[in-house]
């Protein structure tokens, strides 16, 4: 099976095209420097995964309306704001293959543009009196920062249990994906069963998305994903494959590997050693099984919806998340 | 006349004390690292100027209620978030005499804690269905980032006209002070004349506040303000005293001074030269006159309110803003 975002977004393709124009007009500013930065951001736009989810979630629940466009703008603004801030905190020089905002205009401009995008998103919701959107998205912002901070806190410790891992990735990654699906539903229906189903679907898909990311860090080759293998290992992060491998291995061997991981700058040989440990102790395969069962659950959440092209796409998206290689 | 914030806050002192407890409980988090950072922030709390303005603005318009406490929390969260982000963008090591968040926990934690505080503020407004607060505060966040970005943009140019200067400081500084006063009024009255008067008062006082800041940069001595003189000059900022001095001086002399200001790293001698130019050409005295006339206007905006301790304090606050030496 070959899956791609462009194939998945097919049922809402015309809306996405219209959205691109809508969004471009929306985020323009009269302030010259700001406008230049915003246009730079627009030029480097990604695959628009989040607006796609908003539109598909609206379409599975009812009719796409102008309110859906507002919802999609809100999550795209929020997502863009977090990317701009992420590049500052990670001191990243590149984003989507071109220089990051902080690399071109320095940290000061990047932090301010991020804040501007956050405020702009909230203002749009306020202006349109979309108070459900506000509640959903500000919860999401809070969860994202809490998740990141919990991860930083735990990274200083020598262990990470499965429960904490899932708490971190739910808050850090799944919250925004869940928000996309919930807000899409809210844009078109009052049916609380529909809204809850989409929220749950998004949360589960988001969790599986992050597990797959963590798996790819152990498996991918530079040429495939455009980023070097073992990034998380270099940053001394304990993720699900390693957690499972430690559970499966002899206790002393697990301890030794964690000690290696947490000790100073890692040589390429140490990284290879850790990867081998994880593979040999079924860390990757078990993480894949876990992601599979979560995706199974996610698909179940939306099974009761009547058949539609949007439903098929959302089922495909669930598969895409765990089958992607980058 | 001796003025101080503690004297000005007298009529609402008991509310401010209660607010400190209210706020402390409000911003606690179950996430350990986050909670440690939040408690660190609480310990270093400043003079609570912004909550004081919220309470006084409510008291001049009517009764202080629980809604006023929510309003005060919202602006304090917003203000704290911007301070934490400011220290990141300015690479500041200290805040209120102790190490800044970014100095203790690195940029990553600081940006995330700032985002968390923003989200937390918005969530509180959403939970209490305070949609007027949301509109007012998100406009304020947008204006603050736009103002800062306009300032950065203009700092690359060799001129700054008076009009642009006022646009920058209105957005950058006055918007949040205006928000404090407006939101305080909104917390207790529907009277649109009252709300407008407090909003305008805050905007004018905020503008004068920034003019005074810019004047102090030319006048203050390190021992008084706890920061070295000529910081703005070192950062090559053109502020009101210099704008006026250039208007008053021979054109060629003004041009020469701006050329000095904008050329590479400034020697102490060059800085002294610029300060002398500004003083000799009445830049400071004219900026003071301007601030005085703005404060006169601000006081006029609230003159129609019936006499009350809160009104006296707000009139005093207006005076304080242009008479403070730090």
Short description:
The structure is a homodimer of 326-residue chains. Helices cover 76% and strands 1% of the residues of chain A. With 326 residues, chain A is mainly alpha-helical.
Describe the structure.
2 copies of one chain form a homodimer. By secondary structure, chain A is mainly α. The first copy, chain A, has a single domain (5-323), classed as Farnesyl Diphosphate Synthase, CATH 1.10.600.10. The first copy, chain A, has helices at 5-8, 13-27, 32-43, 49-61, 66-89, 101-127, 131-155, 162-186, 192-219, 222-225, 231-234, 240-248, 251-262, 268-280, 283-301, 309-323; strands at residues 94-95, 98-99. In chain A, strand 1 and strand 2 (98-99) form a beta hairpin. The longest helix of chain A has 28 residues, at 192-219. Residues 222-226 of chain A have low confidence and may be disordered. The A-B interface holds A 29, 31-34, 82, 85, 88-90, 107-109, 111-113, 115-116, 118-120, 122-123, 126-127, 129, 131, 134-135, 138-139, 141-142, 144-146, 148-150, 152-153 and B 29, 31-34, 82, 85, 88-90, 107-109, 111-113, 115-116, 118-120, 122-123, 126-127, 129, 131, 134-135, 138-139, 141-142, 144-146, 148-150, 152-153.
The rough form of chain A would be described as globular
Listing every helix as H and every strand as E from the N terminus to the C terminus, the arrangement of chain A reads: HHHHHEEHHHHHHHHHHH
Which chains share the greatest interface? A-B, 41 and 41 residues
Specify Rg of chain A, calculated over alpha carbons: 20 Å
- Strand order, largest beta sheet of chain A: 1-2
Sheet bearing the most strands of chain A, described? 2 strands, antiparallel
End-to-end distance of chain A = 16 Å
**Quaternary structure annotation:** homodimer
Q: How many beta-strand segments of chain A?
A: 2
* Mean pLDDT value of chain A: 89
What is the CATH superfamily classification of chain A? Farnesyl Diphosphate Synthase
């Amino acid at each position: 099976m070959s899956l791609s975002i462009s194939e998945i977004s097919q049922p809402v393709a015309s809306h996405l095209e219209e959205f691109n124009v809508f969004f471009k007009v929306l985020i323009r500013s009269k302030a010259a420097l700001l406008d230049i930065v915003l246009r730079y951001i627009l030029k480097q736009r990604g695959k628009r995964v989040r607006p796609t989810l908003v539109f598909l979630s609206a379409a599975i629940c009812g009719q796409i309306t102008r309110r859906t466009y507002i919802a999609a703008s809100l999550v795209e603004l929020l997502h863009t704001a977090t990317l701009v801030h992420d590049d500052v905190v990670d001191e990243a020089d590149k984003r989507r293959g071109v220089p990051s905002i902080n690399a071109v205009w320095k940290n000061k401009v990047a932090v301010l543009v991020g804040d501007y995008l956050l405020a702009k998103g909230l203002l749009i919701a306020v202006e349109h009196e979309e108070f459900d959107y506000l509640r959903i998205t500000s919860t999401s912002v809070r969860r994202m920062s809490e998740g990141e901070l919990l991860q930083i806190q735990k990274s200083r410790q020598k262990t990470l249990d499965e429960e904490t891992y899932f708490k971190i990735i739910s808050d850090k990654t799944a919250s925004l994906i869940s928000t996309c699906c919930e807000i899409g539903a809210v844009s078109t229906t009052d049916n609380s069963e529909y809204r809850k189903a989409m929220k749950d679907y998004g949360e589960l898909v988001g969790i599986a998305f992050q597990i797959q990311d963590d798996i790819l860090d152990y498996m991918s080759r530079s040429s495939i994903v455009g980023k070097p293998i073992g990034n998380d290992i270099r940053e001394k992060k304990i993720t699900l494959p390693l957690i499972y491998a430690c559970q499966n291995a002899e206790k002393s061997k697990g301890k030794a590997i964690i000690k290696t991981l947490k000790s100073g700058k890692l040589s390429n040989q140490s990284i290879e050693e850790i990867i081998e440990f994880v593979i040999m102790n079924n860390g990757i395969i078990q993480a894949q099984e876990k992601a599979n069962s979560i995706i199974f659950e996610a698909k179940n959440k939306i099974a009761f919806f009547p058949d539609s092209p949007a439903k098929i796409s959302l089922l495909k998206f669930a598969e895409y998340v765990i089958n992607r290689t980058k």
